[in-house]
Amino acid sequence: MVDMVGKAVRKWWGLFALPTFLAFIVGFIVPFIMGVYLSLCEFTTVTDGEFVGFKNYAKALADKEFLHALGFSAAFTVVTTIAINVIAFAIAYMLTRAIRGSSLYRSALFMPNLIGGIVLGYIWLLLLNGILAHWGRALTYSGVYGFWGLVLVVSWQQIGYMMIIYIAGLQSLPSDVIEAAAVDGATGTQTMFRIIIPLMMPSITVCSFLTVTNGFKLYDQNLALTNGAPSNMSEGLAMNITRTFYGRMGWEGVGQAKAVLFFILVAVIALIQNRLTTSKEVQA
């Protein structure tokens, strides 16, 4: 029976894959191509585009608010990528040791990832503004307050998810290599940096990729926590693109051009990061 099913799948695999392939074409490829074309047009709807070449890209790159949002997102991504991965790895390492109730701790730390970004943002908005009120401040007092508020919220939300990936990686490490290092007299620090971390590079590659892309794509928490205030100083790239497209009359083409630039930027950075971390992977 199993062999018959396998033969059927091998024979008709194209038919099985067709619905998913069509959905991918309709839901991603076609809109992407239309988006690139519209970034070269002035338009108000997708049917009245007037080709203007790279005029929209020039306006996008000359927009100081867009460049500020780019710097804000870049700094945010660097900080959160380091913070989330270091803390998640440390927690995962501790929870793979003989600790009572480790399963409970894992569940509790993973739970924030189940909360939607908008809801999470509003909850933390109340908490952080309540704390800052003692000093007569609020998250919207300056871009710096909004920046670190977003770092705190996003890190708190994503650490549990990355922790699960690191735990899976740590549990799959070859115990004989670590035991051999202990027999050879390697210290805990030497074992960590010369054996465990190099063997964990596949997990680090995955987690780094996710945190880098999530950092640049941040929108929900940004909207709920600061909405870009004050004066768009705490506005990330995704929010700037949305505000340009929907909030500035006649700038739809510029907003689309920003979206294309955003895609290229995130794709290039993700590929570079993935190549750098993958090159450091070793065979167990």
Automatic annotation (TrEMBL):
InterPro entries: MetI-like, MetI-like_sf, UgpAE/MalFG_permease. It comes from the Bacteria. Residues 70-273 form the ABC transmembrane type-1 domain. Gene3D superfamilies: MetI-like (1.10.3720.10). Its main location: membrane. The chain crosses the membrane at residues 12-38, 66-95, 107-127, 147-170, 191-212, 253-272. It is a multi-pass membrane protein. One of its GO terms (cellular component) is plasma membrane. Keywords: Cell membrane, Membrane, Transmembrane, Transmembrane helix, Transport. One of its GO terms (biological process) is transmembrane transport. It holds the Pfam family BPD_transp_1. It is found in: Cell membrane. PROSITE patterns: ABC_TM1. Belongs to the binding-protein-dependent transport system permease family. This is ABC transporter, permease protein. It comes from Alloscardovia omnicolens F0580.
